[in-house]
Structure to design on (1410 residues):
C-alpha cells in the first residue's frame, strides 16, 4: 500500500541551495499561530464540541472541492450521499461512499485537495496511508476510531492547531446563537463572526423577502423603507461587532460601485418590497450598497472585503436538486479599474477604511489589482482565492502582484474553508509556498535573507493581524 | 556548419535530479504508438502514397507557421511560392525558395517550429545539419535524394512513426473519396475522418450556398427547409461514422450557445436560402447549431469538439490574393462561462456526451475552463492549441489547468497539423514536456513517482483513446 | 548597517550551469552602449548641465514609482514634498523627506525600484549602504557631496553611462528649445526628440484649445480647419525630424483605429473648435488620427509607437491637487485584434511603416500581440512596459511572446524613464534578464549557445537600432 510522502522539504525547489533557504524561512514561521481571518466553518462545531460522526461526514460531504471532482468523472452526487433539497433518497451507507472516494483518489493527483488531505491524514490523524481501493475499509475504521477519542473533538483540534482566531461568516439576519453559546461556554478559543449581508442585498433573489423579514426580526426594526433597511443593517453591524467582528464581506458578480441618490434608493427599495424590482434595479442596488458599506466601515471601523466574479449555481439541475455550494460556481471575467473607481474616489484616500479585494480572474492581478493596491491607501489585496488557493496559484499571485504592489499591500493568507480539519494543512502549505517564493528571490539576489525573514513573518501573521484588526 | 543539437535530454529541467526523473518518465512513453485524434493532414497523401515532390513542397509551402514568420520579416509570399487565388505568377524555383528559408532560419530560434524541424531533419531524414545560407543547396539535394526512396513515402513514414490512428478533418459535403480509396487499397493504416460542418453553418459566408448544394448532393436530400438541412447533416454524420469517424469539430468565433425555436430556425434558414440572412441571423444560427450538434452527439455517440476564438483572415489583402490558412488568423478574447451555460445545462450532465473544448485565450484556462471541466461530467479540455502548442504554452496549460480540473479531465495531446512529417516531432515534444512537468511535481513531493508514471501513460495514450472513443 | 548585495551573478538562475551560461551571455553585452529609444528625461537636464540640487530632488520627487508606494501605505504626498497645483504648502525640508523615504525602504522589497536603486547607489554613486532609518542622514550627506562634484553632472553621467542615443518625448507644440540649446552647445551627446501629439488629439480635454493655439503658433499656421490642423501636424513632424527625431508616440485609452471621411473629420473638428465636441467625437477623432499618423509615417519615415490602455488620473482628488503622473494611472483591459484591424489592413503590409505596439494587459501577449507581430511586416512589439518592466514582468513577456513572434519581431529594451540616474540600472537589469532567459533555453537545448549569443546582441542593440532607425 502506498504511504503518503509527507517529506519535510515538500513543495520546495529541488535545487539544494534554494531548498535550504526555503526550509530556513519556513522553519521560522512553521510554529506560529494560525490567524484565520476569513472562512466558512460552522461555529456549531465548536459550540457543541461533539465528536465528528464518521470519516465521510468529516471529510467528503462538506467539501465541494472533493465531490465536484468525483462528479466531473461521472459519479452521481446521490452516490456520494450529498443531501437533496426535496429529500429524495441518496446513499446513506457512509462506508460505501468512502470506498468510492478511495477508489477514485487518483483523480486528485496534483490538486491542492490531495496535498491538504495528505497533511490531514498524516499530521492530524496519524494515518500515513494513501487512500486506495484496497485500504478503504481499514482506513475508514482507523479514522472512525480516532474520531471517537476526546483529542479529536473540535475544540481539542482547535487548540492543537494553535488557532489564534477563527472567523466565521454569517448572513445579516443571523442571530449568532452559536457564538452566544460559545461565549457562554467559557471556552477560551477566539471565534468571531464576519457579516456577509449578500442575501439582504440581492433584491431579485427568490429568498430576498424572507431575508428582509429575518433581518427585521433580528434588528427589531420594521423594514418598510430604505432608511429602515439601513438602520437595520447598522444594527446588525453593531451586533456583530459586539461579538468581536472586525470585518464584513460581500460576494458580488461584478464589483461595480455607484452611489444612487436617496430618492433612487427609496424607489428601488419600494419596488423590491412590492416584488417589482428587476435585474437592473438589483444590479444598481448592489453597486450602491458597496458604496454604502464603505461609508459605514469608515464610521464603525469594520474592515470591508469584496469577493467578486463568481457566477453561482451555473448548473441549474444540480442547484434545483441539491442547492448551492455544490461545486457549480464558475468564475467570470472581472473588471476592477472602472468598476471600483467611484468607491475608491469616494473613500480610497481615507485612512479609516481598509478595503480587501479578491479575484478569481488572474488576468487582473498585474493589470488592475496590483496597480490599484500600489496606490490607494485604503485598498489591500486578499490572497489567491478558491481555485487559485493552490501551489501554482499562489505562486502566480506572488509573481504577478508583488513587484507592483509590494508585499505590504497584501494581507497574508486566508484559508476560506468550511473543512475544519484542513485548516492547518492549508496554512502549512501557504507558509511553504511563501517560503519557497522568497527563497528563490534570495537565491537570485533580488532580496537578501534578512528581508526575506521579515517578509515571511509579515505574510504569516503581521499583515493579517494588521489588515483585519485582529 | 552548425549541427542540430538533438540532445536526448532536450527540453528537460537542467537540475540533474529533475532531469533524471523527467527522462525516466519520458522513456516509459517514448515508444508508445501515436494516437492522433485531431488534425489536418490531407488523406490523399496516404491514399496516393506518392513520393513527396521536393523539400520546399514537403516542408515550407504547406506550413503557414513557417511562411508567416518569413512574411512578418518582409519576405513576400510570392517569393515563397505560395499559390495565388487568381493564378498570378509566384516563384516556381523551389530550390530558390529553399535558399530563402535557410538564409532566414534564425527567425525561428526558440519557436516550436525550430524544435519540430530539428527532429524532422535528424530523426526522420537523418540529416543533422541546421539550415543555413551556406548549406541550403546541399541540404536541398540531400533531402531530395531521401524523398525519392521508398522508405520516405507517406505510408512507410506512417508505419515508421507508429501511428495507431490518424484523424483527418473534412467539410460535411466531403464525399470522403480519399478515405474510400484508402479503404479499397487494403492498406492497414487506420485513417479516419472528423466531420467539421462549419461551411454549412456560416449562413452569411460567400461560400455558404455552394456548400449547401454540395451537402444536398452528398446526402441526396433536397435542402429546401431547416428540417431537410438537419436530415442532410444527420445523413453525413452517419456517412462519416461509416468510415470510422468518432468525432465532429466546430470552429466558431464565439462559443455562444442558444437553442432557437423551430419557427425561428425555419425563418432564419429561409432568409439564408434567399440570401437575406444578416450577421445577427448568422450568429444566432451558429449558437443554435452548437446546441443541435450536442443533441445529435447524444444520439449517435460522436464526440463533439469546439475550437473557438480565432478571427480568420484578419489580413484582407492576403486573403483576397492567397486565400485562407495563410498565417493571418488572429485570436480573440473568448468567454466560456456564460456562453456555454445553455449547452451545459441542456447536456453537460449527460454521460452520453463528450464535449472537448479548446481555447486560444489562455486567460480562460484557470478562470473558466478548468472550473467547468472540473465539474460537468460531459466536458473535457483539449490540449494547448495552435500558438500555445509550444514548450512554454504546454507548460502554462498544465500549470493553469491541472490543479483545478485534475489530469483526468484533459484529453492528452492533439498534433492538429497539416505537416505530415512533423507528427512524430510534435508528439515527442509533448511527451517530453509532460514528463518534465510531472518530474518537477515529483521533485517537489507534490505527487509521487508512481502517480507520475500512471499520469504520463494516461496523457500519452489512455486519456486520448478514451475521450475520442478510439 | 545592511550593505547592498550587488552580486555580480544577481538575477540569474541559482542552478550553477544555467548561471554560468547566463553570465557568459551577459558579459558579451554588459559593456555595449545604451540605446534609449523612448523615455521621458527632461532635456533641460543635459542642456543646462547643472548639478542635481539634492538627493530628494534627484531620486524621490521625480519618480512616481517611489512616492506612490509610500502613498499607498498612508504617507501623504505633502509630506513627500510633491508640489501641489494650487501652491498649497508641502514639506520643503528635503532631508526630512529623505528620512521618510529611508525609514520606509522595506516597502520596496522585491520591487524593480529596489533593484534599480541598489545599482544607482552602488554603481553610480559608490555608496553601497542600503537606506534605513539609521543611515538616512549620513546617506543624504554622502550623496549631496557627490552631487557637487563635476563627474556627477548630467553630461558627465551621460558619457559615463555610455548612452549612444537618448530620446526624449514632447508635445506637438513644443518648440524644442532645450534641443536647440543642446545643439548650439556643441556637446556631442546624441539627444533626440520623439513627437507625442496626444494633447492636440484629445478634443474633449480641458487643455485641448490651448494646445491647438500653441501648435498653431509653433507651426505658424492658423488652425481653423481640419486641413490646417493636419498641415500644422506635418509641419511639426518635419520640425522634429530636423532635430533628429525618428519616431512618434501616441498614448490612447483604446487602440481602436478607424478612418473617418473628410467631411466627418471637418465636422468633428469644427465642433471641437466651437467647444461642442463630445466623448463620441473625441473617441472617433483619436481612432482616425491613429490611421492618419500611420499614413504620415509611411510618407516621412517616422517610426510609429502606440502605448494604449492606461486610464490616466484614476484618483481625481490626487489629480485635482497634484496634477498628472502621480502614480494614479491604472491599466485597463485592452483589445488589439479587432481594434488594430483597420490600420493593419490599410498599412500593415507596407514595408515603409514600422509600428511598435505596447501593452499593459499581459493577457494580450500570447493571444493577440504575438500572433499579429508574427504576421504583419509593419508591426513589432515593444518590450514589457511600465508595471511590467520588472524581473518577473520581462520574463512573462519573453515566455509569452517569443515562441509565436520570434525574437526578431520584438525591438529590444526601452527604459521609458524620467529618472535619469536610473537609466544604466534599468538597461543592466534588462540585459541580465534576457541573458538569464536565453541561458535557460540553452540549458534545455531549445536553442544552442551560438544562437543565444546572436540573440542577446540583437536584443541589446541591433533590434532597437533597426526598429527605431537609429
Amino acid at each position: 500500500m502506498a504511504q503518503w510522502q509527507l517529506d519535510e522539504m515538500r513543495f520546495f525547489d529541488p535545487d539544494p541551495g534554494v531548498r535550504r533557504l526555503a526550509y530556513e524561512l519556513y522553519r521560522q514561521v512553521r510554529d506560529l499561530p494560525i490567524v484565520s481571518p476569513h472562512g466558512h466553518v460552522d461555529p456549531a462545531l465548536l459550540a457543541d464540541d461533539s465528536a465528528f460522526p464518521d470519516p465521510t461526514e468529516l471529510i467528503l460531504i462538506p467539501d465541494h472541492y472533493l465531490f465536484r471532482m468525483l462528479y466531473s468523472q461521472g459519479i452521481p452526487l446521490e452516490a456520494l450521499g450529498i443531501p437533496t433539497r426535496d429529500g429524495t433518497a441518496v446513499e446513506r451507507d457512509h462506508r460505501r461512499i468512502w470506498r468510492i472516494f478511495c477508489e477514485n483518489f487518483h483523480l486528485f493527483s496534483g490538486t491542492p485537495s490531495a496535498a491538504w488531505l495528505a497533511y490531514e491524514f498524516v499530521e492530524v490523524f496519524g494515518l500515513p496511508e494513501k487512500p486506495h481501493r484496497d485500504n478503504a475499509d481499514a482506513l475508514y475504521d482507523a479514522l472512525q476510531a480516532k474520531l471517537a477519542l476526546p483529542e479529536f473533538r473540535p475544540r481539542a483540534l482547535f487548540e492543537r492547531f494553535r488557532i489564534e482566531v477563527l472567523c466565521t461568516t454569517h448572513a445579516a439576519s443571523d442571530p449568532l446563537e452559536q457564538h452566544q453559546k460559545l461565549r457562554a461556554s467559557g471556552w477560551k478559543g477566539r471565534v468571531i463572526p464576519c457579516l456577509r449581508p449578500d442575501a439582504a442585498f440581492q433584491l431579485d433573489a427568490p429568498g430576498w423577502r424572507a431575508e428582509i423579514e429575518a433581518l427585521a426580526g433580528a434588528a427589531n426594526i420594521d423594514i418598510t423603507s430604505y432608511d429602515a433597511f439601513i438602520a437595520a443593517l447598522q444594527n446588525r453591524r453593531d451586533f456583530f461587532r459586539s461579538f468581536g467582528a472586525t470585518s464584513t464581506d460581500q460576494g458580488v458578480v461584478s464589483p461595480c460601485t455607484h452611489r444612487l441618490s436617496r430618492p433612487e434608493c427609496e424607489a428601488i427599495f419600494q419596488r423590491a418590497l412590492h416584488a417589482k424590482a428587476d435585474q437592473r434595479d438589483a444590479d444598481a442596488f448592489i453597486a450602491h450598497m458597496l458604496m454604502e458599506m464603505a461609508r459605514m466601515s469608515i464610521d464603525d471601523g469594520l474592515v470591508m472585503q469584496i469577493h467578486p466574479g463568481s457566477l453561482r449555481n451555473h448548473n441549474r439541475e444540480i442547484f434545483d436538486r441539491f442547492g448551492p455550494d455544490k461545486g457549480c460556481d464558475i468564475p467570470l471575467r472581472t473588471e476592477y479599474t472602472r468598476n471600483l473607481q467611484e468607491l475608491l474616489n469616494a473613500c480610497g484616500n481615507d485612512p479609516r477604511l481598509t478595503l480587501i479585494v479578491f479575484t478569481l480572474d488572474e488576468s487582473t492581478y498585474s493589470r488592475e489589482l496590483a496597480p490599484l493596491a500600489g496606490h490607494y491607501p485604503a485598498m489591500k489585496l486578499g490572497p489567491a482565492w478558491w481555485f487559485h488557493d493552490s501551489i501554482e496559484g499562489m505562486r502566480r499571485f506572488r509573481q504577478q502582484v508583488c513587484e507592483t504592489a509590494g508585499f505590504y499591500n497584501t494581507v497574508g493568507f486566508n484559508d476560506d474553508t468550511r473543512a475544519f480539519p484542513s485548516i492547518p494543512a492549508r496554512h502549512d502549505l501557504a507558509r511553504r509556498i511563501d517560503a519557497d517564493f522568497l527563497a528563490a528571490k534570495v537565491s537570485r539576489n533580488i532580496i537578501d535573507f534578512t528581508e526575506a525573514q521579515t517578509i515571511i513573518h509579515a505574510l504569516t501573521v503581521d499583515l493579517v493581524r494588521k489588515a483585519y484588526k485582529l
Notes: The mean pLDDT of chain B is 97. Chain B touches chain A through 47 residues (CB under 8 Å). Chain B has two domains: 16-50+154-467, 52-152.
